């Protein structure tokens, strides 16, 4: 049923890019922040400015990961090491923390200004599984999960959330480690073998595979179906409503 293997009793949904059209918001904010930083870095080091690619760099290094992990991962890919910094860093400090905070300020500004759109096919699917009595949780690396769900009007669809704030509080390793999804299944009272994972990020499908969930559904929004399969998706769809027809 619902395109899922027999025995699945619950669904663990990533949020950005699966339920809400916020992956592009994050990608735009990462690009704006990193390009400003990369210009400064190029001037300081006398090296060429190579901008952040909002599709390729976003998908490979940043998507699905907790904010500071995303910052570190992209900097590492460019061979740049910055100090970790602290919450008291000035806004323009060249630290992992200050860069991450700048990106977050941009994301929150866009969400507060423009609101949040959902994917209609995902909402149809969510309603169908809810009406059939399947358990439902959101498992998102974003520390802005509550804000985004509220702006999208999706707060009431889920029985549990595991987000970037919980991950920090509970010392859960971020995706691609399976810990956040395992915590989501546990919050619903399910074994991994009874839960399906829905993910658009490479780090996210890898987390689903590592957690040995009943099924990992890759949601391809950017033409990376093969990469989603290689990283751990059992099925790839471009819209969750396709699963209602299976
Ligand atoms: O910065 P936030 O809102 O805590 O989100 C962290 C990450 O959350 C993930 O859901 C997104 O795929 C990433 O793009 C984002 O960077």
TrEMBL record:
| Keyword field contains Isomerase | yes
Which coenzyme or cofactor does it need?
Mg(2+)
Record's signal peptide: none
The domain of life for this entry's organism is: Bacteria
Query: Transmembrane region positions?
Result: none
Q: Which InterPro entries match?
A: B-phosphoglucomutase_hydrolase (IPR010976), Beta-PGM-like (IPR051600), HAD-like_sf (IPR036412), HAD-SF_hydro_IA (IPR006439), HAD_sf (IPR023214), PGP-like_dom2 (IPR023198)
Matching Pfam families, A to Z? Hydrolase (PF00702)
Q: Which Gene3D superfamilies match?
A: HAD superfamily/HAD-like, Putative phosphatase, domain 2
**Keyword Metal-binding in record:** yes
Q: Name one GO molecular function term.
A: hydrolase activity
What is the reaction catalyzed? beta-D-glucose 1-phosphate = beta-D-glucose 6-phosphate
Its EC number is 5.4.2.6
Q: Which keywords does the record carry? A: Carbohydrate metabolism, Hydrolase, Isomerase, Magnesium, Metal-binding, Phosphoprotein
Family, per entry: Belongs to the HAD-like hydrolase superfamily. CbbY/CbbZ/Gph/YieH family.
Q: What is this protein called?
A: Beta-phosphoglucomutase
Q: Please tell me the species this chain comes from.
A: Nonomuraea phyllanthi
